[in-house]
Structure formats: C-alpha cells, structure tokens
Amino acid sequence: LCTAMPHMLIYHQVHLKVGLLYFLSGNGKGCPFMWQSKKINHVTKSPLASETMDLADAADAGHLTAVMVKEVFALSKEPKVTCFTDSKSLIDHLQTSHVIQDSRLRVDVARIKEMIELKECEVKWISIDKQLADPLTKAGASPSGLLEVLRGGLF
Question: Can you list the residues of the chain whose pLDDT is less than 70?
Fold first, then answer.
C-alpha cells in the first residue's frame, strides 16, 4: 500500500451480465485487485432494478474490503469507496426523495442512500466512454480505456 489514504474504486456495468472492477488507488495511481464478469442470475422488473441491485451488492463488497484494508494496514480511517455507474437513471433515483413504487427497488435504493449518508461509499455517474467495465459485459466494446488504466496504473 503506497499511500496513507487509499480509495476503493468500483466500476459497475450491467447489460444482461454484470461486470465489476475493483481497484485500490491513491496518489493518482491504482491497482486492480478483483474483477467479476458474470451472467445476471436474478429476475428483476426492469433494467434499473438490475442496475440498483448489483450496485448495492458491489458497494457492500467495497465497504467490507475497505474495513479489512483499514485493519490490515492499521489506517486511522477506512479507505473511501467510490462506485461508478453509467446509469443516469440510477443516479437520478439516488438523488431524489420521490417514493419508488417497486418495493424491492425501493429497498435497494434506500440501502445505497444509507451507505452514502453513513459515508461508507459514494456513487458517481460516468459517461459510457469512460466506463471501464464495458468490455466485461458487451461484445465488441473497446477495451482501450481499461487497458490504458491497467498498463499505466493511473486514474
């Protein structure tokens, strides 16, 4: 660990498959430590529900990893967990106080909002051209952005 204040960066992409990239980063450099690319094995009512459920699971995993990193490296506080998604609709739902009709979606959105409020994670929108997880979920998606990060270790 090269820095006193590392960050957990999680790139999240859902497209019939879920793609997750986990990076530990600090001082402008990062290193992947885990990735997942798997078929979605749960039934949801909408693409938004899938995005939300999988992002909530990724945020949970990121928070757990941050707690372990804090303990292993005897840090004064947990590393910051940042989740990136290209789902504008998910970001909009996280920033509104409107009641969501789908009860399962409402629970997952509330779970993420609570994690944000407790500063266990933050969720940021990124444009599709910056989405590093696309090559894990979409045939024909350019891996150039991901390869650039992996080769240079820079964010």
Answer: 1-16, 40-42, 154-155
Sheet hosting strand 17-26, strand order edge to edge? 29-39, 17-26, 7-14, 80-85, 122-125
Give me the long-range contacts of 39-47 (CB less than 8 A, separation at least 24): 40/14, 40/16, 44/104, 45/102, 45/104, 45/105, 46/102, 46/105, 47/14
Name the pTM for this structure. Answer: 0.81
Residues shown for the chain: 155
- pLDDT attached to residue 2: 29
- In order of 21, 46, 48, 106, 147, the CA distances from 42 in angstroms are 20, 11, 13, 17, 30
Angstrom distance (rounded) from CA 147 to CA 132: 9
Residues 6+ apart with CB under 8 A from 149: 23, 30, 132, 155
Q: What pLDDT is stored for residue 14 in this prediction? A: 56
Distance of CA 155 to the CA centre of its chain: 15
